[in-house]
Design goal:
The chain is mostly helical and 219 residues long. The chain is built from 5 helices and no strands. The chain has a domain at 72-218.
Length: 219
């Protein structure tokens, strides 16, 4: 039966609807709070998990210690002294080679000049082998210098024979057919290669410690 005009409608359905809406809102809010807490907890756990890994995988920077720098400086200064001696020997050899090629006025003394240079470089090899603190310098650099001086000794001895031949047989300018001159070619070329390798490694070290740098044809 339809209610009369004066009769009030029941509010129960409306209350039930309001309660349902509020309950849904409470559940949603609770879900959002729980989800927010879960997200924060998950993020924090991820940070805790990833941070030790990041620390483990990052390699420490390699730095030179004051003691290693000091040791290398001392060894480099000692080597610089040997190089200065080599420069003097090189200068006399260049002049002697030019004199023999031109059958110059010092032809009779050129052989002795080469022999003296060979002896000087042999002494340098001995000093290099006994260089204090050499382990602080690059081993391949020292090997290149050792090879350069060893081959230079051989070339100097061959040049000495060449100059003796020119004196004994009558000098011919630029006599490349002489056995001594021909024998000197290979060790002289190898010495050049070794010197080029050496200076490419030495010059950065020299710049680091304020020591003389060189071109290969000065040594």
């Amino acid at each position: 039966m339809a209610p009369g005009p004066g009769r009030r409608r029941s509010r129960r359905p409306l209350l039930l609807a309001v309660i349902a809406v509020l309950a849904a809102g409470t559940i949603s809010a609770g879900f959002l709070v729980v989800r927010h807490f879960h997200d924060r907890h998950t993020s924090a756990a991820a940070v805790k998990t990833s941070s030790p890994s990041a620390v483990r995988t990052s390699a420490p920077a390699v730095t030179e210690t004051p003691s290693s720098i000091s040791a290398q400086r001392q060894a480099a200064e000692g080597l610089a002294g040997l190089l200065a001696q080599s420069v003097k020997a090189r200068s006399s050899i260049v002049q002697a080679v030019s004199d023999v090629e031109k059958c110059g006025p010092n032809l009779n003394q050129d052989s002795q000049t080469f022999q003296t240079a060979a002896t000087s470089r042999q002494n340098l090899l001995t000093q290099l082998a006994n260089l204090s603190g050499s382990s602080a310098l690059p081993s391949n650099m020292l090997a290149a210098l050792t090879g350069a001086w060893q081959n230079s000794v051989k070339a100097d001895q061959d040049f000495a024979q060449w100059s003796q031949d020119e004196v004994s047989h009558g000098c011919t300018q630029n006599d490349q057919s002489d056995p001594g001159a021909q024998a000197a070619v290979e060790p002289d070329n190898q010495a050049t290669t070794d010197k080029q390798n050496f200076v490419s490694m030495w010059n950065p070290i020299a710049a680091k410690y304020g020591l003389p740098a060189y071109q290969w044809n000065q040594l």
